[in-house]
């Protein structure tokens, strides 16, 4: 955390600043404080909460995020396939039972 910045800081609106996380390519995972209000109601207050990340972290984090997002998408696809397989198995059982009966 930077020297004078504290998480209970008030913005220029005299409202407790919101602690957010940046996910831009230049500052992935870096935290900052900003006015919690949005649009025209915001006073525009903004300051970094933590120090600059080293070049290695800035290079690695976006790739890790892409891998996580890819893995989550794969899990969703597998769950969809699991439902399809379950329905296929039920249909197959019905067909086999029907053939055994007739």
Automatic annotation (TrEMBL):
GO terms for molecular function: zinc ion binding. The chain crosses the membrane at residues 85-101. Signal peptide: none annotated. The keyword Transmembrane helix applies. Residues 11-52 form the GRF-type domain. Keywords: Membrane, Metal-binding, Transmembrane, Transmembrane helix, Zinc, Zinc-finger. It comes from the Eukaryota. PANTHER family: ZINC ION-BINDING PROTEIN. This is GRF-type domain-containing protein.
């Amino acid at each position: 955390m930077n020297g004078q910045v504290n998480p209970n800081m008030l913005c220029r609106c005299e409202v407790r600043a919101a602690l957010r996380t940046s996910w831009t390519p230049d500052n992935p995972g870096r935290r900052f404080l900003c006015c919690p209000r949005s649009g025209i109601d915001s006073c525009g207050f903004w300051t970094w909460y933590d120090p600059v990340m080293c070049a290695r972290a800035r290079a690695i984090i976006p790739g890790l995020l892409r891998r996580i997002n890819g893995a989550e998408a794969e899990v969703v696809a597998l769950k969809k396939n699991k439902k399809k397989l379950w329905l296929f198995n039920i249909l197959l059982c019905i067909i086999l039972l029907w053939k055994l009966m007739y």
